[in-house]
Amino acid sequence: MLPTVEWQGDVVVMVDQRKLPAQEVYVRCRSAAEVAKAIRTMVIRGAPAIGVAAAMGLALGVRKSTAKGTRQLTVEFNKMCDVMAATRPTAVNLFWAVNRMKHAFAVGAQAGESPAELARRLEDEARHIHDEDVESCRAMGAYGAALVPEGARILTHCNAGALATAGYGSALGVVRAAAEQGKRIAVFADETRPFLQGARLTAWELLRDGIETTVITESMAGPIMRAGDVDLVVVGADRIAANGDVANKIGTYTVAVLAHEHQLPFYVAAPVSTIDLDTPDGDGIPIEERDAREVTHFRGLQVTPDGAGIRNPAFDVTPHRYVTAIITERGVCRPPYTESLAAAVRGAATPC
Ligand code: MRU
């Protein structure tokens, strides 16, 4: 399986996703600040992967700290948490992971642990977050594969694969699990402008696993559905509001509306760490606006005229009415999502 992000001794190592598939280069982060920078600059991306990296970064920061005692370490740790939380606003997994690390720190500090003991505690917590994410992906895969018919042609958007998680993937976990069950499947990977997560990362991952993959630009999704060449859509999510509205990579909303028009199932696969019950609906989800240069330039070459206005929201919100089901590691949630998502977060074995 792909090593998306790994703890190695006293460094956090991650494959540089900006360079794939042309180059397989690994970035070695030696401090919490370096991990935060890697998240901000998209060395690592994808909601669950960001959460795992942030947890490892905080553990690393505490381990490298030269604070004399727990009081000084607490001040430093809180600053690290703020820096980590300011990297990207939309994926709630980041804040979920930071809060888990804060909780672990508070438990250790209350028990009177030394800085070295706190460092070990946080390292253990980060490893748990990593390992739980892989397990969640496997479970989502098992639940989701049951929804994939033999011979299915699956359309996906962005990259919700091993690279976007600690391993195996959420949406691509469903694809992988169906393939592992011996189902004959084929994937359409939306290119996913402007960062090309679909063309570069999804296609690369799936081809490594020997899964038939066709890359299309997002503008091709409609005609391909109309031609009857797609059986279902499965995507990941960055944040799911309590009512089932789904924030995911920009362009997902368009795909969902197209799927609805063509009466195709539109599935979202995401761990419960992506569900944000504190946000009632999609209007409350903060949408990251990224650098205009991602749109104005391609590989350093300017592709738009000077003076053109540019928008670059990195995510959009798909209203829950377009979502057929949400596949979590605790079961498949169906409408009404206000009930089924709350049950999944509470830990119900099968929300629906
Ligand atoms: O900007 P990115 O590449 O971090 O956006 C990633 C996505 O939108 C993914 O679809 C989402 O995080 C789900 S990953 C399992």
Low-confidence stretches: none
**Which geometry do the CA atoms define?**
globular
Structural class: alpha/beta
What is the first-to-last residue Cα distance?
Answer: 31 Å
CATH topology of the largest domain: Rossmann fold
Helix content: 40-55%
Strand order of the largest sheet: 6-5-4-7-10-15-16
CATH class of the largest domain: Alpha Beta
CATH architecture designation of the largest domain: 3-Layer(aba) Sandwich
Mean pLDDT across residues? 97
DSSP E strands, number: 16
Total tally of structural domains: 2
H and E string: EEEHHHHHEHEHEHEEEHEEHEEEEEH
Task: List bound small molecules.
Answer: 5-S-methyl-1-O-phosphono-5-thio-D-ribulose
How much of the sequence is in beta strands?
Answer: 15-25%
Integer-rounded radius of gyration: 20 Å
In the CATH hierarchy, what is the superfamily of the largest domain? Translation initiation factor eif-2b, domain 2
Question: Largest beta sheet, briefly?
Answer: 7 strands, mixed
Count the helices. How many? 11
Provide a descriptive summary of the structure in words:
- This protein is of the alpha/beta class and 352 residues long.
- The protein has two domains: 133 residues, Up-down Bundle (Four Helix Bundle (Hemerythrin (Met), subunit A)), CATH 1.20.120.420; 199 residues, Translation initiation factor eif-2b, domain 2 (Rossmann fold, 3-Layer(aba) Sandwich), CATH 3.40.50.
- Helix content is 41%, strand content 17%.
- It has eleven helices and 16 strands.
- Strands 6-5-4-7-10-15-16 form a seven-stranded mixed beta sheet. Strands 11-8-9-14 form a four-stranded mixed beta sheet, covered by helices on one side. The chain has a three-stranded antiparallel beta sheet with strand order 1-2-3, covered by helices on one side.
- Helix 2 packs parallel to helix 4.
- Bound molecules: 5-S-methyl-1-O-phosphono-5-thio-D-ribulose (MRU).
- The site of 5-S-methyl-1-O-phosphono-5-thio-D-ribulose has 17 residues, from helix 2 and strand 9.
